[in-house]
Design brief:
It is built from 16 helices and 20 strands. The protein is an alpha+beta fold. The longest helix has 17 residues. The structure holds CIS-heme D hydroxychlorin gamma-spirolactone 17R, 18S (HDE).
Length: 733
């Protein structure tokens, strides 16, 4: 890096390698701009090294062998959409200098018309999201339960993953309290498999027919269209307090799982039970889990709120930056395998009820493969916006079950793309193209981009030699598991679906004290934002059926009486796996802010930055001003953030180098980081600045050393626990 060219020594690691990058991610383009407007014609610059478009396959799944950028704009000169070169794009064609614009101006009409149609309907739910490319490598450990080819031993499958919030519009903030989507498209040799899950293992409703109800209730009020992207309002609590099967999911949303630190630090769940079948025809009932290598971590509520204002793209940036820096996020795919019994129930848990989990202590999650996200999209719209997931995208060996929520989803996802992506050919969009040969006999329709040959798109035919032929299972055909179906046609649910509270109680009792405290605050906050007393009282009544202590605390915060339970709280065993606190985790891709000014030991700051990057994390220097810090003969230090452009919420840890000059914004940064129980470090005489900021220098998680390396070692060890949990004043017993 040089002072004139900050952050731009941008040699990125090879795609598969997990090496730390020596650069600060986030450059907008692959080449630095010149100061003057460039005038010499040249081909477009390549994409950034961390970016990759969808693989070059044809609309019908054939590898084209075309170069990666074959779909990108080409040529040095401005053209029309027809490739005609243009001399001017700044003036419309007019009759005279001051005259009216002529209808003849094709370039004007084409440019404006295309612009007028740039938007497509956003997803009705999960509108706000971000995506990445990656690979999935199977361990082979699932081969005994499924014949799915991509889960056989050591198979590598390309994937695209999209993470999302549920409620907000496309432009809403990332860190709102909400469930997160975790949708994965596996481009397998046998056809595309989509695992369309969430970061919570249960859902608000047991039957798909209620989906419009829960979403209408959670979306902004229909008259004023507020509040955006949140559940802290009357209609949501009105619905969930009346519709008590939502209780378990509501508890997850109110817990710290509702405000993840990063998409990289979320678990994922398939939610429903699936039926897996092996080569011998044996079947099992299975739940899918994604386990993040970095552990499950969350923001604290105040951080989430600050970030929503100061950096609404926090999660989007975090994922892209981590990938660009070479800290590729990884998850293990795991399965819980239950016997396929006639009642589809395991140890009293109805496996068709999506409001229930199977505790991991009862059925351990077995790892079956590793997902690595290693490339950012080249174009957000073409890839992340146009990707279309569907639960019906299945491969041999994976079947849906009769979970009534899953059954309705099988209808919805295909239906929604017709409106969102403008017709039936959305599977031909590059991001949605299968990597397996397609011969579907579907023809025509809006935006057809395949060039179907052959005279006979029907079966049987003789004109086309009988093509296409049907295949049996031995040739990889998808044959549904033969399942007996019986029953009386009726709009009913089994009695086992009536238990709405016992697993919510299990979840609550499984949390650590500090997590329970956060959950209590979240309930109090959300209900405190409601207008109607009746709704608050009704919601308290639901809580009373889960836990009396929690109800008393929330009621206290609302200034309302705590009701007694109407259903005796269940006698449940806690599931320790549900708590996210108490274990150390890797720190890859974490962000350390170093506060420095000209008075700091700048050589030590540079060394510290290098050590942090070498340890797979990001190091950002925060100074009172931008540009560089210079002092004496040492190399200048490039400033990445100023006290004005950043906030403590950008960092997992804040370190003070020496004793930078007193500044209120520095004190706020430190005080905030301390309040959010983050590790704070200091070296080279940092005691003074920390004490002036009101940080008790002997508090847990405050590491002060003369030597920066010694400090960093301790800081990294503490960071593994994510936060200094015992600094939180715990209120819940
Ligand atoms: Fe979805 N859901 N959903 N959902 N869902 C959609 O599909 C729907 C449900 C989930 O990044 C929509 O393409 C119904 C559960 C994710 O593109 C839509 C029901 C789970 C995503 C739809 C559910 C999910 C969606 C909107 C009740 C977790 C984003 C746009 C039966 C297991 C995928 C679209 C992406 C998106 C319908 C319930 C996860 C409207 C009817 C349960 C991650 O089709």
């Amino acid at each position: 890096m040089t002072a004139a060219d900050p952050n731009r020594d941008r040699t990125l690691p090879e795609a598969e390698e997990k090496a730390p990058s020596a650069v600060v991610p986030g450059a907008p383009a692959s080449e630095p701009p010149s100061l003057e407007e460039p005038t010499a014609p040249r081909e477009p610059a390549p994409t950034k090294a961390d970016q990759r478009p969808p693989e070059a396959v044809s609309p019908t799944g054939k590898p084209t062998g075309a170069p990666e950028d074959s779909r990108a704009q080409a040529g040095a000169y401005l053209t029309t959409a027809q490739g005609l070169r243009l001399p001017d794009t700044d003036h419309s064609l007019k009759a005279g200098e001051r005259g009216p614009t002529l209808l003849q101006d094709h370039h004007l009409r084409e440019k404006i018309t295309h612009f007028d149609h740039e938007r497509i309907p956003e997803r009705v739910v999960h509108a706000r999201g971000t995506g990445a490319h990656g690979v999935f490598r199977s361990y082979g450990t699932a081969a005994s339960v499924t014949r799915a080819g991509f889960l056989a031993g050591d198979v590598t499958t390309p994937v695209f993953v999209r993470f999302s919030t549920v409620l907000g519009s496309r432009g809403s903030a990332d860190t709102v309290r909400d469930t997160r989507g975790f949708a994965t498209k596996f481009y397998t040799d046998e056809g595309t498999f989509d695992l369309v899950g969430n970061n919570m293992p249960v859902f608000f409703i047991q039957d798909a027919i209620k989906f419009p109800d829960v979403i209408h209730a959670a979306k902004p009020h229909p008259d004023r269209e507020i509040p955006q992207a949140q559940s802290a309002h009357d209609t949501f609590w009105d619905f969930v307090s009346l519709h008590t099967e939502a209780t378990h999911h509501v508890f997850w949303n109110m817990s710290d799982r509702g405000i993840p630190r990063s998409f990289r630090m979320m678990e994922g769940f398939g939610v429903h039970t699936f039926r897996l079948s092996n080569a011998e025809g044996g079947t099992s009932l299975v739940k899918f889990h994604w386990k993040p290598k970095l552990g499950v971590h969350s923001l604290v509520w105040e951080e989430a709120q600050i970030i929503a204002g100061t950096d609404p793209d926090f999660h989007r940036r975090d994922l892209a930056d981590a990938i660009e820096a070479g800290a590729f996020p990884q998850w293990e795919l795991g399965i819980q395998v239950m016997p396929d019994s006639p009642d589809q129930t395991f140890e009293g848990i109805d496996l068709l009820d999506p409001t229930k989990i199977v505790p991991e202590e009862l059925v351990p999650v077995q790892p079956v493969g590793l997902l690595t996200l290693n490339a950012n999209p080249v174009n957000f719209f073409a890839e992340t916006e146009q990707v279309a997931f569907h639960l019906g995208h299945l491969v041999p060996g994976i079947d849906p079950t009769d979970d009534p929520l899953l059954q309705g989803r099988l209808f919805s996802y295909l239906d929604t793309q017709l409106t969102r992506l403008g017709g039936p050919n959305f599977a031909q969009l590059p991001i949605n193209r299968p990597h397996a040969p397609v011969n579907d006999m579907f023809r025509d329709g809006m935006h057809q981009s395949a060039d179907h040959a052959g005279p006979a798109p029907y079966r049987p035919n003789s004109l086309d030699g009988g093509v296409p032929f049907t295949a049996g299972p031995e040739l990889g055909a998808y044959v549904e598991v033969a399942q007996p179906v019986q029953g009386v046609r009726a709009r009913t649910a089994p009695a086992s679906f009536d238990d709405h509270f016992s697993q919510a109680r299990m979840f609550y009792l499984s949390l650590s004290e500090v997590e329970r405290d956060h959950l209590t605050d979240a309930f109090t906050f959300e209900l405190g934002k409601c207008y109607e007393q009746a709704i608050k009282l009704r919601a308290l009544q639901v809580l009373a059926n889960v836990d009396a202590d929690l109800t008393a605390r929330v009621a206290d915060g609302l200034g309302l009486p705590a009701p007694a339970a109407t259903v005796a709280p269940a006698d449940v065993e806690p599931s320790p796996a549900l708590s996210q606190i108490g274990r150390p985790w890797p720190t890859d891709g974490r962000v350390i802010g170093i506060i420095a000014d000209e008075s700091s030991d700048l050589a030590a700051v540079t060394d510290l930055q290098n050590s942090i990057v070498a340890a797979g994390m990001q190091a950002l220097v925060i100074a009172p001003h931008g540009g560089t810090l210079t002092s004496g003969t040492v190399d200048p230090v490039i400033v990445q953030r100023t006290l004005l452009t950043t906030r403590s919420t950008e960092f997992d840890v804040v370190v003070v180098a020496g004793s930078p000059k007193a500044a209120p914004k520095m004190y706020r940064l430190l005080e905030e980081a301390f309040r959010h129980v983050k590790v704070i470090g200091g070296f080279g005489g940092a005691e003074e600045a920390l004490a002036a900021a009101g940080i008790p220098t002997d508090a847990p998680g405050v590491v002060i050393e003369q030597d920066a390396t010694r400090m960093l070692d301790q800081v990294v060890e503490l960071m593994g626990e994510h936060r200094v949990w015992h600094r939180f004043p715990v209120q819940v017993g």
